[in-house]
Q: What sequence folds into this?
């Protein structure tokens, strides 16, 4: 008798709820990443991979630690010379605090004033638990909010290398120089207007940049009429653009 394997087909809503839970986990819980480096073997005859496990505190913990370091440094230097705290870090903390409370008020008002919901971690996990019960429109909006918190926290904490700062205009507010990009994971945020992009949406930002690099149609037509080459529409070094902003998502 043949056996038929039953495969579970997850709905789009379930996948979105899972993504919300995964990002809440990164925001609130420590995790580890494995970094592979190639080193010389013990017999010094060839290169071998060496895996180093790095322990990361939660994103929110890192944000608070960054603020604590800034304020501690200011106190130690005295009133005459106080460095400015990382304003973006403070802004992200306040954003998560404010919007998570608003979300909980909207979908589970009875719990907002409970002691376990006063702490932002409790609110975030309650939202993650409720995600699968929301209708499609609310679920998509919650996913958008959580994605914004996650992306901006990743940019602010800058695990590994500092974020790239391409001198390109934001597709939402047109400010130049406000885009911050991390390649692992692929995320981008505008520190001017707060817009964010993750792996699934950053291609739109890349398309926006690519369009701005195209010369206007009238310029192209006139150049072709004169038999001249056509330059780009903005003074941006195309070769210097991060690949993700060129629409090439790794």
A:
């Amino acid at each position: 008798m043949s056996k038929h394997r039953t495969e579970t087909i997850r709905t789009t809503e379930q996948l979105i709820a899972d993504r919300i839970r995964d990002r809440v986990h990164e925001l609130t819980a420590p995790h580890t990443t494995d970094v592979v480096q190639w080193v010389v073997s013990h017999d010094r005859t060839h290169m071998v991979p060496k895996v180093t496990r790095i322990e990361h505190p939660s994103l929110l913990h890192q944000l608070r630690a960054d603020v604590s370091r800034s304020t501690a440094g200011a106190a130690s230097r005295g009133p005459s010379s106080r460095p400015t705290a990382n304003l973006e870090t403070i802004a992200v903390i306040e954003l998560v605090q404010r919007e998570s409370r608003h979300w909980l008020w909207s979908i589970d008002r009875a719990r907002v004033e409970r002691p376990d919901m006063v702490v932002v971690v409790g609110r975030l996990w309650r939202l993650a638990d409720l995600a699968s019960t929301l209708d499609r429109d609310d679920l998509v909006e919650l996913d958008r909010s959580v994605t914004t918190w996650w992306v901006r926290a990743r940019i602010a904490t800058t695990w590994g290398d500092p974020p790239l700062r391409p001198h390109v205009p934001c597709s939402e507010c047109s400010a130049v120089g406000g885009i911050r990009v991390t390649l692992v994971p692929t995320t981008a945020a505008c520190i001017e207007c707060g817009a964010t992009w993750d792996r699934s949406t950053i291609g739109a930002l890349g398309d926006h940049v690519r369009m701005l690099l195209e010369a206007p149609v009238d310029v192209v037509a006139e150049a072709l009429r004169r038999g001249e080459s056509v330059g780009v529409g903005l003074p941006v070094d195309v070769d210097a653009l991060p690949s993700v902003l060129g629409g090439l998502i790794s």
Remarks:
- The longest strand covers residues 31-40.
